[in-house]
Amino acid sequence: MENYEYTSPQKKIFLVENDSNVVVNFLKKFGQDLHVQVLGSADEALELLKTSYAPDAVIISKYLGGLKFLEQVRDNAWTKTLPVIITSVELNQGLIKEVVAKKGDDIFTNKFDRGDLLVRLDYFVRRRHYVAMQQTKSNVLDVKIPWWKRTFDVLSTGTAILLLSPLLILVAILIKLDSKGPIVYKSKRVGAGYKIFDLYKFRTMRTDADQLIKNMGDLNMYSKEKPSENANDGLCDTCRNKGVKCEQSMYLDGKSICEKQYLQEKNSKVAFMKFQNDPRITRLGKFLRNTSIDELPQLFNIFTGDISLVGNRPLPLYEAEKLTTDDYIYRFAGPGGLTGLWQVTKRGKGKTDMTEEERIQLDIEYAKNFSFKMDLMIILKTFPALLQSENV
């Protein structure tokens, strides 16, 4: 069969189909959204997978050996995570079970008259990318700390700990008198190379702060948009307007929701969390934060090598897991640090208009270009930034 190729800067799809009517209808319906390469047989697709860059998904007809193709793809280490969608003239429970048993990703009629193919493809691409990143993070982001940086960290923080020990003891006593709870707060953070460690801080919040944050999404300074009033009904805007139950539903936390609605809500969530006039902060905690005294225990993190004096701020797990794309993950290719480029760029000027994207790009800039000269510049600019004007 003659090869058709529809070029578009969108997701690349192999469509294995020998019915010209099906091909034409598919291109009419999805040609504007997908880069479609039409192939005439499963063997042709397998051969192309060996000699070219893998597509984002393969859509293959059951009648062209789709199930056998699926088995061969899953047995190959290079293609076992490749999304494969089986098509058939009609669907039945027996066929669906067979596709699931062979680890197929989905099954559609060849008319694609039910379900949202584009939404499913978007989900498959994101899922595959996430799995790949989990497998390669440690290799891709093998961060080496230069000797000059490590030497400076040990000498400077070792001296600072000795000189500041009276202040550290005094603050510890005041925290114990101010509120119930531990003196030092430990939180899991993701630093250089996506390595997880315990970050130390003087406790400035109530002991139930982690539970309170679940209900504070609307107060987040980095929020992109407020949730829809109808978001809790589990329907996307399209299904809600039609007044019908979603055909492409999924189950989450025991509830049935529209997969399109789930993806929309997930994409609208931001990675960073920061609040003005945070109600979780204790009376003493406000002072400790405004003077940055609460971060002094991180000198021990620097001394032991968890982070550096200057670098990208290590992130909580729930923030770091949102930054796994090819572009954003490289903010973890630089050393983690107590202070960094984004803090002195705007935070020290008392501004509150830094967007999430700006912060990420400054982190990436530091990871790519950090040097002794840049570190020294950041350290000198950090002191004016310590007394910040924003209550965060």
List keywords for this structure.
three-stranded antiparallel β-sheet; about 400 residues; transferase activity; alpha/beta; Sugar transferase; elongated; Sig_transdc_resp-reg_receiver; transmembrane; 15 helices; 3 domains; Rossmann fold; six-stranded mixed β-sheet; single chain
Write up what this structure looks like.
This protein is an alpha/beta fold and 392 residues long. It has three domains: 4-137, 3-Layer(aba) Sandwich (Rossmann fold), CATH 3.40.50.2300; 141-215 and 271-386, no CATH class; 225-268, no CATH class. 43% of the residues lie in helices and 15% in strands. The chain is built from 15 helices and 13 strands. It has helices at residues 20-30, 42-51, 66-74, 93-101, 117-140, 147-178, 209-212, 237-242, 259-268, 283-290, 298-304, 317-320, 341-345, 356-369, 372-386, and strands spanning 4-6, 11-16, 34-39, 57-61, 84-88, 106-109, 184-190, 196-202, 249-252, 255-258, 308-310, 315-316, 337-339. Helix 6 runs antiparallel to helix 11. The protein is elongated, with a radius of gyration of 26 Å. The relative contact order is 0.09. Residues 1-9, 250-254 and 269-273 have low confidence and may be disordered.
